[in-house]
Specification:
Layout lengths: L18 E7 L4 E6 L5 H8 L8 E6 L6 H7 L6 E8 L2 E9 L8 E7 L10 E4 L4 E4 L7 H14 L7 E8 L5 E3 L6 E3 L1
Helix pairs in contact: 1-3
Length: about 190
Amino acid sequence: MESADVPVSADKLAPMRVNDYVLEYDGGVLVSEISIRRDISTFANPLRGFNGDDQWALSLAPLPPGQCYADVLEAGDYSTDYIQAAGSGPDAITVEIRKPGGRQWGADWVRYVIGHPHNDDAPLDVAITLPASTQMVSRHEVFNADEAAQLFDIYYKSADIPPQHAPRPIEGYTTDGTIIDLRDGVPRRLE
């Protein structure tokens, strides 16, 4: 885990938390806490190194107020909101976001594949090859590293993505742990 400068409160002489997000690389191989003082290169540099093998994933999730990543791990209190990217190269990246919503499907949170703005329904005919799977997405849902970095930076600053981007729902989640498959437009609870 990356160490951060932790300022000390003069009146309490105790460390104050400065890290607001956890950045996870390649499925958790490397994790670092980051503050709100980072720039877009924090996301662009790892995304540009994607190769679909040992450098293939990046995720960003907010930390609960007053907690560090170790606290979250110990409590098992993982974030339900995040943005994540996976790719087989710097020009073949898919980006997903998970955020609250989905009542129309019986969900409390929904994971979406993010797409470029478009007007047509494109087939899922682009393969993003990853170490343990291949993700099929449409041509509108393929980003290059710089485009994906912009989405991460916007999420980092606003906890959402621009409204003109086309999210495609793929999975819903309930507070009791139920997963709902949304891929074909017909919600199905998974056992």
